[in-house]
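Running log. JK asked me to keep both predictions on one page so they can be read side by side. First protein, sequence followed by its tokens:
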Amino acid sequence: MVSFTVGDYICANESVIISANDVKKYAETSKDFNAIHLDFQSAVKAGFEREIVHGMLVMGIAESRLSTIFPTSVVVSYETKFIQPVLVGEVLTFSYVVIEEELDTIAIKIEATKENENTAIIGVIQFTEVRG
């Protein structure tokens, strides 16, 4: 496993914009066609400015960046707290910091921050090394 210690930031803060097309593809894959994700009027009626991104799509994007850093590791736990909805087309910036490190495992705190600097999602993902 790549070597990090508690407090290390992993990868530079990375920004992403999740498009309506990304949300549509995720809905098709996950079979989650809730209208607040796909239809402007339904999202507004539910109290949002516009369509919102599936929370697990956001966390999947965050995890995919880590899987390139830990290619021989597997996820053993994943906790997520959804604090604010992410709107389709909004810029998100991800940060990753090591919060626990042992011989074969590492726990990383993931934070997704919106353009207005409000935190949207906080998660902790734990990886373990795959032994051949």
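And the second, directly underneath as requested:
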Amino acid sequence: MAARNGGPEHYRPFVQAYGPYIYKTVYAVLHSPHDAEDVTQEALLQIYRSLPSYRMDGLKTWITRIAVNKAIDFKRSRARRPEELVEREAVDRQSADLQADGMLAAAPRPAAEAEAIRREELRHVQAMVNELPDNYRGVVTAFYMEEKSYEQIAAETGLERKSVESKLYRARGWMKRHWRKEDFE
């Protein structure tokens, strides 16, 4: 692959070939044209930076995984910043109104492959989370899988906010000691 061994000028054909696919994949997760464009750029940058470590097998699966992970990370970060979300929703509503009026092209449909990969990754992650000790599993599931805030978890479990933070901190330490990066590839 020329993009792997060459400089940025060799990456342009890759972007032209896979950019639309990555956009569709990201859009399937975010459902926002504006956010999908931003995250697609981030995913393409991440792919470019990661090319030296790419093992030359399953290119489409590899780039899909990067794109889906970038989209999920973006979605999580947006959930933790509700004030920006309100502004973004207004922009998305305007875009949806323009689409309804036929002024914008219809948004791409989610790729079946991306959805299948996402579901499989979620099943795998859930299986890994189920291996956590009982005292960590609940807060990890609530925080990472259900995307709840520390306050929500504290209210639902009857714990103090600091206790929730502490459990998550210890759970992350446990995961670092017991899980390998390869377990998620």
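Observation for JK regarding the second prediction: The domain at 2-108 is CATH 1.10.1740.10 (Rna Polymerase Sigma Factor; Chain: A).
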